[in-house]
Design goal:
Blueprint: H1 3-16, H2 23-34, H3 39-55, H4 59-69, H5 74-86, H6 89-97, H7 106-114, H8 126-135, H9 162-168, H10 170-176
């Protein structure tokens, strides 16, 4: 499965969901769609998912997740990036390029107002669950590899430093640090 095909599955799930901000519903729909594909294509989707996880493994995005969620552990960052994938290609690519642009999303603004974090661990299991549904078997152990990029050392600072966060992510800081 190519990246474009993976994004089409996510976008179709979002389009079908009555509320595309309901990531649980998006995950269920994406899993069901993917489960209709040939097993080889489902296995290939696992690599696409983890390629997106690697693409989004950036310190600036982690800082944004830290602001949005009021802190962000290693696992929490995985779940935040899962949420980000469930938002679709356009939002994902914009956020990876400019994490502060997340402040423009209504769901991010709402999370700032209600204090709820944005995570979706279930996205990480879409392909696994689709494969089990389609074949009755778990994914092969070698279904994917992941190569995280080296972190940007210019972002090596304490994320609890509100002044530095406000300097680097001004729009998100305005929403979440006030």
């Amino acid at each position: 499965m190519k990246r474009q095909q993976f994004w089409r599955v996510v976008e179709a799930a979002r389009d079908q969901a009555p509320d595309p901000d309901d990531t649980g519903d998006v995950v269920r729909r994406a899993t069901a769609q993917l489960a209709t594909r040939p097993a080889e294509e489902i296995v290939a989707a696992q690599q696409m998912l983890w390629d997106l996880m690697a693409d989004s493994y950036t310190v600036p995005l982690w800082a944004a997740a830290y602001l949005i969620n009021g802190g962000c552990s290693d696992d929490g960052f995985d779940y935040f990036r899962g949420w980000l994938i469930a938002q679709g290609r356009e939002v994902f690519e914009r956020a990876v390029a400019d994490p502060d642009a997340l402040a423009d999303l209504p769901v991010v603004r709402a999370s700032a107002a209600d204090g709820l974090g944005l995570e979706c661990e279930a996205v990480l299991g879409i392909v696994r669950d689709a494969h089990i549904r389609a074949t009755g078997r778990h994914l092969p152990a070698d279904a994917f590899t992941i190569r995280y990029p080296e972190p940007d050392t210019s972002w090596h600072f304490d994320f609890d430093d509100h002044a530095e966060m406000a300097r680097r992510l001004p729009r998100l800081a305005a929403l979440h640090l006030e």
